[in-house]
Amino acid sequence: MVFKVGVMGAAGFAGVELVRLLTQHPNFELAVVTSDADAGKAIADTYPAFTGMDLPLFTNHDDPALFECDLVFLAVPHTVALKYAPPLLEGGVTVIDLSADYRLKDPDVYEKWYATKHTSVDVLANAAFGLPEVVRGEIAAAAETFAAGKAVLVSCAGCYPTATSLAAFPAIQAGLSAGLVVVDAVSGVTGAGKKATARTHYCFADESVEAYGLASHRHTPEIEQILGISGQDRLVFTPHLAPLKRGILSTVTLSVPEGVRIAPEALQELYEGFYADCPLVQVLPAGTSPKTASVAGTVKAQVSATLAANGRAIVCLGAIDNLCKGAAGQAVQCANIVVGLAPDAGLPTVALPV
Amino acid sequence: MVFKVGVMGAAGFAGVELVRLLTQHPNFELAVVTSDADAGKAIADTYPAFTGMDLPLFTNHDDPALFECDLVFLAVPHTVALKYAPPLLEGGVTVIDLSADYRLKDPDVYEKWYATKHTSVDVLANAAFGLPEVVRGEIAAAAETFAAGKAVLVSCAGCYPTATSLAAFPAIQAGLSAGLVVVDAVSGVTGAGKKATARTHYCFADESVEAYGLASHRHTPEIEQILGISGQDRLVFTPHLAPLKRGILSTVTLSVPEGVRIAPEALQELYEGFYADCPLVQVLPAGTSPKTASVAGTVKAQVSATLAANGRAIVCLGAIDNLCKGAAGQAVQCANIVVGLAPDAGLPTVALPV
Amino acid sequence: MVFKVGVMGAAGFAGVELVRLLTQHPNFELAVVTSDADAGKAIADTYPAFTGMDLPLFTNHDDPALFECDLVFLAVPHTVALKYAPPLLEGGVTVIDLSADYRLKDPDVYEKWYATKHTSVDVLANAAFGLPEVVRGEIAAAAETFAAGKAVLVSCAGCYPTATSLAAFPAIQAGLSAGLVVVDAVSGVTGAGKKATARTHYCFADESVEAYGLASHRHTPEIEQILGISGQDRLVFTPHLAPLKRGILSTVTLSVPEGVRIAPEALQELYEGFYADCPLVQVLPAGTSPKTASVAGTVKAQVSATLAANGRAIVCLGAIDNLCKGAAGQAVQCANIVVGLAPDAGLPTVALPV
Amino acid sequence: MVFKVGVMGAAGFAGVELVRLLTQHPNFELAVVTSDADAGKAIADTYPAFTGMDLPLFTNHDDPALFECDLVFLAVPHTVALKYAPPLLEGGVTVIDLSADYRLKDPDVYEKWYATKHTSVDVLANAAFGLPEVVRGEIAAAAETFAAGKAVLVSCAGCYPTATSLAAFPAIQAGLSAGLVVVDAVSGVTGAGKKATARTHYCFADESVEAYGLASHRHTPEIEQILGISGQDRLVFTPHLAPLKRGILSTVTLSVPEGVRIAPEALQELYEGFYADCPLVQVLPAGTSPKTASVAGTVKAQVSATLAANGRAIVCLGAIDNLCKGAAGQAVQCANIVVGLAPDAGLPTVALPV
């Protein structure tokens, strides 16, 4: 079975990663790629990795061909998805949204962090959250709806929330965290997007590490929502930038509640059990740690959990490719599930060994 | 005034950084460089940045010329300093030790973490700790002893402890921390040393971020000692490796005690006050964050402190060059103080702007 | 149709790239991987990208299971292939050799450049050279032999010769070169192999460019042989090392013979015509240049040819992934052809766009 | 003796490198830094390496304080120097120009390559070319003029011409070149300037090597002029971009004339003799090759010359820091000479060893 798909915002980094994945996927036919800035141009003009391939040219966001697709992926900035998702859904087109517009269940929280009015709360109310290994029910329900012939919207988790939640959710859900949840995550530069800025300039990014967005990054409420700690002032999320292209390593330190202790073996079993049916999440053996290079270019995640401070703390680690498992790959994984395929169908799962 | 100095272990990364600094320092004359593995060779053979310079050849560690020096820097592995420091001191030579052998005040703690017997506890008892901006009294006392004509031993702080303590000490000393002290620090690859291993191989280190040494890194007890939290099971120290040559960024998250709150301005003032007389530590203005590239190649540190989690947490950041302020630069800074010079005398303080 | 294959020397960089390619290829079943140094260990212990995959463990080079394979890839150092190829062939196993042992048609040249006796000149005499887009007849003949039920040996071209010959062969064959053939090629660090050395240490390779092997690199006679200029003292081959993992860019400058002139359009047509039936070689449009990142991780090559010096010179550029098209990918391409598959069957052809 | 100096265009990469060098130079007082785009801002806002230093704020290019300087460095784009240099000279201010506006002795050549009218050919006629180790007479004459109380203009060589000429000039001057002069040079990304573009975006520049500007780079006529081969259609200059910040390695291959042969020792002596009195140019011993990292951050150059193709060719290598010896460092070196100081006075000459 082959589904016709489109990508809005295909010229950005997440968008072009969707192009990479969809053109190599046996069950999706990439029919439309839009970019208001690049309409009329070839993808290979900007991304020479596609030179010589037979791909559609960029068209404008209002290309009516989008409505002839079975699914449309939205890789557009926040607020732009607010504009395009509702009409697509009304037109019967299933939407896989990579933007932040339908992630936060509470529109007030959205409006506070994104400083914009949420204009389609009805769509938001029915959106399925897209982080299949952690938020399991919503995507399953969306698949049933789709199977029943109705269009659905899946709102895929952000990059930092994906790495962080995969690392920390099993322990938090098991009651192993009290007080602060400290998230120090390191991202490669693709996370800063395609726009050429001082931040993304090679000569400023290379050979340096820095933290940014202290106490103010927009992924904060999303992580709180997934981890179930919204409104508790417990999350301290500090993103960092390091000189590599792809990858996020999220290091989450949990404070084990007074009176609670867990053995290392039990912690390991907790994680292995939680992800037992998740082919795309690898729980590493005790004593080994995730490396971003081990999952670069793939839709896989590596996680580990280790006791520290004589059992008073747990250090949870999660490594993903921010553009793939953290964005485009997860979106296609969600699309796979929605249309009834295996989660990893047609997706790259083996990184370059070196 | 010019002092004759030697460097033991000059072929390693910290040792060769000492060579760089000492050959450009107007008050030190580099007379002896030792390396058992490279004896007889020229420094430029391994480090072509020195090609064409008139430098001493490597000699063996037992070169008697060391005893004709005013000061000797020990850039040797731990346990090796245990062997060489006592005779030098007895010979009247002041020792600036970059190894871990005299850092931990409690020899039992040393023996536990380094799995070796401490064979000169008398020297340890009189060693001055070398992190001048934080541990202020010991180095000052050492300078007085030296001025009185006696040899002293300064045991310089490690790279991670330096970045971490500069970031977190003012807040912890002010009573702004309860419960866990979470340290996630990122180091460049020079921190892994000169030895060619799988870890330092370009193709394994490049384009990847990973954590290592979870709950087991030897800098743990040293950080606890400096921060005054030894034996409390509060420190969670997770070092990380990122693809750059020089630099450590230490991100320290403190949990503000229940019932304690501090205004952002007061936090800023606390830090600016604490480092008011420290020319080599820059407290960044609120809203800006340290970057390792801003201090690379220099003996400077940049720090900042920011409230998070609605005032329940403080994120302290410290950036240094691990080889310079975190090793050789701090050692020369300590030597400067001991011999009566300004702390920053003859040291590089301006990084490459780009 | 599925062929059983083995990889000797699977722990090295070319070997592990073979593992990556073969485990994802629908027509090859990877049955044996050997490494004398790592026998008994899992591939994922050294290359965590394979964590969680069901792969054979390393065995010794003398594993008899190799003789049950249809094809064996030799990713061993030169001289080691001399030892293992003949018995495999005698045992009816087709050999795809990535070493240098059977590349040079003249055993005297081999002995001069590799300082070792060639011990199987009979095998050498029948070896097919493996650079299918340039040396077309030998691999085609090998396929016929294999189809007739006989084992063959394909000696795959080296990395620099591949990039260089793809760039320069059409122009040289067309008579557009007199005098020196100047090859300045830049390689990523994977080209230096897995061994941890001063050269491959991150801190020596990062942020630097250097030339090496001046007038003495062993790929010199191989390039001369492919280009048909052996024994003419015309080739000046200067390899360079740059700070990236994968990729070779070969820049070949030809001196157009006196009295010969070619129009830019004719030069472009010459190249497009030459590679018209080669799906893995892209001749770039005039005005664009190959980038190594555009082919990283793939078996593709990008080439271009441009007139310079007012028509007196031609600058030919060729970009490949040194481990893939320059080693393992080309080997599988050759295996594809030998067993009757399309050259690009089962091979990655789309690089990460960013 | 201290001279008051200004830098026009101080916000660009060459300009800010001038700021770095001049603020650490004991004989120059940096009084004025101009940038039309950044007027009113602090240098540290863009370049945090200067945080905490007491530096002048950016002013506009028409800041009258420039006329109170003894020397003004022009680090502005070409054509902008044409506008500002003449009035400064008339005002008695010596100009050290880093732009291309006064490099080409023949204004017709300038107009052809820069597509703009040369509006001050009288200034051009008196300009001293600034590449002191190669073009020796002009800068010496300028120093005499300055000593006589008159303002002079020094037009500093470009980055590629500097690395290339230092490498190749001694051999060419000695008659060791006929036919093509093939220059393949590799530059770090600082060479592309401060502007954030697709080319300088970390994610496009990292992990890739490419050639650019084939047969069309504007440094072509400048190299021809210095090497004395203008109008001969002999130069083939192919610049490349590699993933590092600072550094140019220029590989120049010369075709030794028929009938001419030189022994390796004689070639080495030729180079050592040519640079005998040049403290900033190191001729490397035979068998070793320049590395850009060995001169990064310094005003030094490393060169070597090696016979190839059985004596029919010479491979000349030159490594510099493109921003320092290739721009700002050479400019200060020229200023040193003009005002009567040693060429290397106050300049950094020792690179980071690692």
User: Strand tally of chain A, please?
Assistant: 14
Strand order of the largest sheet of chain A: 3-2-1-4-5-7-6
Order of helices and strands of chain A: EHEHEEHEHHEHEHEHEHEEHEEEH
- Largest sheet, strands/sense/barrel of chain A: 7 strands, parallel
- Note the quaternary state here: homotetramer
From the N-terminal CA to the C-terminal CA of chain A, the straight-line distance is: 35 Å
As a whole number of angstroms, the C-alpha radius of gyration of chain A is 20 Å
Give the helix proportion of chain A (percent range).
25-40%
Q: State the largest interface.
A: A-B, 52 and 52 residues
Protein structure class of chain A = alpha/beta
Instruction: Give me the number of helical elements of chain A.
Output: 11
| Percentage beta strand of chain A | 15-25%
Overall pLDDT metric of chain A: 97
In the predicted model, the low-confidence regions of chain A spanning at least 5 consecutive residues are: none
Shape of chain A: globular
Quick overview of this protein structure:
Chain A has 354 residues and is of the alpha/beta class. Chain A has helices at residues 13-23, 43-46, 80-90, 107-114, 121-126, 136-147, 159-173, 202-205, 219-227, 264-274, 324-339, and strands at residues 3-8, 28-34, 58-59, 71-74, 94-97, 128-130, 153-156, 178-187, 210-211, 235-241, 248-255, 281-283, 301-308, 313-320.
